[in-house]
Write the structure tokens for this entry.
Amino acid sequence: MNLSSFKDIVKNYKVVFFDSYGVLRNYKGIFAGVKEMFEYLDSQGIVSFLLTNDASRGPKELAAQFQEHGISSLTDDKIISSGMLAREYIQRKITGGTIVYLGTENSANYIKMNGVKTISIHDVDLDQNDDYQLLVLLDDEGYDWNRDLSKTVNLLRRYTMPIIVANCDTTYPLSKDKVAIATGGVANMLEPLVQKVFIRFGKPDSQMFSFAFNHIQQFGTINKHEILMVGDTLQTDILGGNKFGIDTCLVLSGNTLAKNVDVAITASGIIPNHLCESVIS
Amino acid sequence: MNLSSFKDIVKNYKVVFFDSYGVLRNYKGIFAGVKEMFEYLDSQGIVSFLLTNDASRGPKELAAQFQEHGISSLTDDKIISSGMLAREYIQRKITGGTIVYLGTENSANYIKMNGVKTISIHDVDLDQNDDYQLLVLLDDEGYDWNRDLSKTVNLLRRYTMPIIVANCDTTYPLSKDKVAIATGGVANMLEPLVQKVFIRFGKPDSQMFSFAFNHIQQFGTINKHEILMVGDTLQTDILGGNKFGIDTCLVLSGNTLAKNVDVAITASGIIPNHLCESVIS
Amino acid sequence: MNLSSFKDIVKNYKVVFFDSYGVLRNYKGIFAGVKEMFEYLDSQGIVSFLLTNDASRGPKELAAQFQEHGISSLTDDKIISSGMLAREYIQRKITGGTIVYLGTENSANYIKMNGVKTISIHDVDLDQNDDYQLLVLLDDEGYDWNRDLSKTVNLLRRYTMPIIVANCDTTYPLSKDKVAIATGGVANMLEPLVQKVFIRFGKPDSQMFSFAFNHIQQFGTINKHEILMVGDTLQTDILGGNKFGIDTCLVLSGNTLAKNVDVAITASGIIPNHLCESVIS
Amino acid sequence: MNLSSFKDIVKNYKVVFFDSYGVLRNYKGIFAGVKEMFEYLDSQGIVSFLLTNDASRGPKELAAQFQEHGISSLTDDKIISSGMLAREYIQRKITGGTIVYLGTENSANYIKMNGVKTISIHDVDLDQNDDYQLLVLLDDEGYDWNRDLSKTVNLLRRYTMPIIVANCDTTYPLSKDKVAIATGGVANMLEPLVQKVFIRFGKPDSQMFSFAFNHIQQFGTINKHEILMVGDTLQTDILGGNKFGIDTCLVLSGNTLAKNVDVAITASGIIPNHLCESVIS
């Protein structure tokens, strides 16, 4: 596929969904030029949203990172995270009892609701039934894997409850050449051990895109052909956008390298509508 | 879980999504009492829709089967099939070239569009490039598996194109104790052989529910808590409904038997909101 | 990895296990120079065996193909096929009743035994119980996939019997750029549909190597470090040989291309002891 | 299937392969009557072996547990563990450099060899290349999962080496109703994250049975039909024995419960030759 200039591509859309890591930033911080790119979009009346697989914090915290860098258009109402889908599920489905979570205390704040107790797997006492209504995997931190993953298996063998995974990414970047295992990787380990069906939220699942599509209608009526999904990963951003029926743009500033992009597209059969070096091209 | 009367359950909702096989009918035909059940729903102002994994014919043909039995409320605008999602995908994504399909000529009628050629895998000549834009699996009939499944593998090794599966069910019932392999089973065979990502439409995927949710808004504004999904299969109907955030009712007139239901729920971790013997209970 | 001359490598071993396709031959026939290579091995007192995933014919027929080309050292007692493992299994485990097979009549000849009936899936009458003792997948030809694969599913839903797969290769080459779906591909389709455990014979499974290792002891006591496995496929020949604890040599005349070999080894983590352009290098 | 007396079954064989957990012992210790059962086998000239998926200690330590309870026939030369296969692999394949292990220091003792360095993943410094030749998963203890599993992923992304799993069990029992995640569960989590092929040792893989079969020949020539595999798990003990072509006996004192056994056999298609309540029946 041929490379295009991102500016040339984006001007044909009214709304842009941006993935975060590898598109707007990396482990070191926001890319140079991203602030100016958002100013250009604002000047053209193109509305930007962030679509991110993240359940470790709420939209306010996610937005704060961008506002610190002077990117004023990504306010918290422009952030759509997989954690928000998990939160909506919990609000619709759980009305009492106890939710067990794997994650930090901070990640649990966002799923707290009146009348529902939350407890970390770390603090669960298996021998004391506590009206368990749900297990939710929020974050890879905040519990002792050696001890608490086996405890999770035993909890799910003893009690029947739905299990939801609020971020299905399996790894996240720590530095140029180091990754850490993410919540989705933990979920993939536990699922065959307990032989239950885990409900996963986040890209490439179409529910993420459907949630975003409904969310943006508050900013004016938008049709699918007016939206562009911009991402660095074929298997999540581009596959999800393609399946949902919106146009997709692959950028080469993250997971997919310029030297591999043609092979990656051919090998996977996942074909973006557009290809750009980066969002500042 | 305790059994409830379907009438007692359904009266608390404004909209009902019905699965077809095992809920309203089986291989012999429509269940006795189903006509009267729909008349009851009509009298209560409850609007009914059919949500079915089927891409072998269009909504008009699917509706005709019910109208023949005097069920007048399931008109073609009340039918939502996985084939409709495939059609919408094609309309949004394909604007020219050739679509290759696995299925009968009849199944292909529904995906035909101006300016796009369709050809059965049966008639494809591998040595003649034909600007292939898409492969779509519509039906398990209409081609010679011995010859044309290998041909499909070779087509996908030679040309890069998206592959969509318009019905992800793996089997369908032929009689009381016989099944046939369905399109989803064929897709599961081909996918590892070509090592490409197949895009699947149909329950339990949330896009089916999202499509339905948007579709029904033309009949009046409906919220998620006003909808009941009724199905006989935990892994498709109930899982999909649960994930999408609507209430679910499992009926014991099809795939899930009364004697196994408690074990099935515990083993899978998929928990319906309600349990009924059948829709005429 | 650096390329070596096959002659330099092979002289350090007493026994060589050869894969067939991509090593000694391709779809067009035996490679030029293979006859002379075998004559060299004979002259050095190195004993050659063929290790092949094939259950479509017996060792006599497999040997005949080589003898026609003047390769006299690959006599039928030097042929070890996955079909022979299936045959041994049947001889040990089945003493009466009926064996159902998927394959040609010719493929079934080799598994016939006194006192045991064999019937093609094509001829099975599902409504007539016939003391079924085993289902065996022998070949991809000899039955109507459209009709008989669904019949196989129904047979296995109705009767409990072990299921064995006598060749786990998923495709085989038809020409330079065409493949056909092989028995292993058919097995991978059926297994999830019937949710039974299929018993697979053939490389990379260590039973194939163990069978071969025991078989060759009749030609003199051989230790593992005296054997070289030569193959063109990392995932079967090299992985299987490595796991069994014998030395392995990857040749670049078949499935693995010279330009991809370093990436293929790094990506898979399957590391051969030696790398040669071909067996005539 | 009908229950038989173990004494009636076993007297027809010359050699018995016993699984350990659920057959001879549970989390509380050796079952009452097992000592007398072994004395009966000794008196009949039937030779017993232990076949166990364990790589956390060597055969001497495994044998000691039985000898403490007065079971004198299970000497260390009668113990066959998956760790022994891993050790044999390492001895055949690794002649220098460094082996990285996941496990306790004690588990690593058994794989130590002259001229080869061993280092726990806990102590690996990713930024210092150390001529890594192999990664081996020995035990679920001895390292910090939160930190060291991500470190393992990064190690395998940076360096190419074979990866072996010396025990493919995914859980082990801690008490009547608690399990812990075992090495095989850790391996199943890591494998998709690094997309390399892990080499697994242990039941049901036939290499375990092949290794045992060769090992026992030092006690006299034994044919396959003279061996009985006794286990409590269809998917490992019985499947592995069946595939290897030896007779199998399922006991109901462990993983498979009497009330479920018929369903378990039908559902899996794994059929033992004999069924006994326990080894003391």
User: Anything to note?
Assistant: Chain D has two domains: 6-53+204-276, 84-200. The two ends of chain D are 16 Å apart (CA to CA).
